[in-house]
Amino acid sequence: MSAGSSIRGLLVALGIAALGLPLAIVGLFGVVSQIDLYNTSIARVREAQLSAAQLQRLQSDEEDGVRGFAATGDPVYLNIYRAAARAFPQEARTIADRLSFGGDDRRATQPLNDAIALNARWRQEVAAPALAKTRERLNTHGASAYIVRIRNDIGEIGAVLVGDYRRQIIGRAGAIKEATWIAVGSLFVVALQIVVYGFVASRLRGELARERRVVAVLQTAFSSEIVNDERLDVAATYVSATRGAKVGGDVYDIFPLDANRTLVVIADVSGKGVEAAVDSTFVKYGLRAFASEHADIATIISRFSGLYERAHKLPEAFVVVFAGILDHRSRELSYVNAGHEAAYVRRPQQIEQLAPTGPIVGVGVVADSRFVAARTWISSDDVLFLSTDGLTEARDPAGNFLGGAGVEEWLRDSDASTAQSVVDFMARRLKRYTRDRSTDDLAIMAVRLKISRTP
Length: 455
What we know:
Phosphatase 2c, domain 1, 5-stranded antiparallel β-sheet, alpha+beta, 10 helices
């Protein structure tokens, strides 16, 4: 075969590949759209499952409220019943709305309607007489019959949704497999084109180098760096649970506020990896900003809590944080411990745990929560030791947790002559304890005063 024929054959093959590549890409986009539809359907089914569970809880609350009021006459139970009774039809409408997009979950519509009707009859025939005290005793037999039927209807709704969820998962898996084959074929076509257009490889290498530089800059930006404070001896270390990354959801910070005060922070953000690192940076600079405006640490945490809840719409997002302001004149540490366990002062004769003073920031924090500040004093012989829960929740090969008692024992054994000696000792002990198999992000920080106490 002549060289010309080989070239012509290659060009024909590349021409066919060039025509086939757009078709493959169009097909890939179609499959990706189908996957997105499956994901949307799965999300809707999951939402409906959560609402069904909520509906079951509301019915239980109604029942408990009626039983409690009928037995004791306490109006607290009456309030429980009324709140659940108001929420029940709203949650039922939510389920109906989520079922309206179609699919096999339409079979859940009838039991949903039955549950709504039974709930209304239960209120009229059981709850209303009991709450009005027209009966000497609650009709427990009639109440139980209604409750069982309502629970069966809700259980039937759940079973339908589980079946629909499984079908959606199977459908999505098939679409992903199809997308994978299309992607493999597309990559093969691209590989053929690279033979002719070699310069694309060099451009890709350049883009890769730029991406690496961007990642390096982001890791530097997200990492915890302590601002130098010459009045303090500070040491810290950080271990990320995400392999290949130097960032995660734990953050520590030392930030001089003025000539007399220093902000001390350690926090644990929900999640792991780069996403949690972005959140931890928000925590770090948010606290710095509020600390620059307010002198009271409780006010600082309260303001930050409000900002965090407005900025994060996901209900599962939360922050466990210890934040304190160290006054170098009085050696007083004013702090708020928002659900943080591993906070200690290692004194020459004892280990003092700085117990939580308030709720965590995020999940479970009600609108009228107040963060309370506590105070302690740090002498030149003391070490303030802070860590995230990666230390207390560390496990040995047998699965035993280290716990707070283990941390205190290690602190007593540590060399407290410098902050670095404490951090190094704790890090070595942890490595031996876990056999170097930590599975959680971990931040450790130790702080000492450099200036001796004035007699």
